[in-house]
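Subject: Sanity check before I submit

Could someone independently write out the structure tokens for this chain? I want to compare against mine line by line before I put it in a report. The sequence has 204 residues.
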Amino acid sequence: MKLKTQLIKTVSSLLVIGALVVPPVTADTFTYTRKGGGIFDAWYDSSVSSYGYTPHLDFSRNAWGGISSKVSIGFTTNHRGYSTDEIYVGNSATTNLFGLMVPYKVSWPTNTLATDQKGNAPTSNWDYSVISIYDNSLSAHKLKTWTGITHTTTHELGHSLGLAHTTTHGQIGPSVMSAGSVADRNVNTPNAYDKAQLKLKWGS
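---
Independent answer below. Compare away.
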């Protein structure tokens, strides 16, 4: 009986310790965030216009506007700003990869990644993002339609704003932030849940 009581106490202690070391849940937003806040500019590389993606990116920048007074993605022709996102269009060797957001920290002598080498969630606060849209992957999956492209561009800009993949997609309706394996690519604007997550991240 004494051994059983001791075992229960030990397991209880481990559960308490485990509860203390588990990182706080942040719903469907990244734990870390942009240093400069949710109001910033995006710069388009010449590849954006070469592939014809300018109107898609303009649409997606505006899709995140008007939700929170603390969130707005503008446009600039100067990509030297410390908080300015850089956007490129090209091709990927991974045909199931439609887009990618990579966060960076400004540092000397070169800027450094604010994520691990696998491109998972940011591992620290970041200054700006480099967003890549992969034309060949969209073509291979017959997604070079207005909604197919704007779903991807809106999704990647959502990551740049600090939104993670939606984990409750089956409960809240189609989310533009759903992971690729479950994404409804006919959805190209934030739904009510996405908007709520944005406000959770930045405020109203």
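---
OP: Matches mine. For the report I'm noting this point. The first helix runs from residue 2 to 21.
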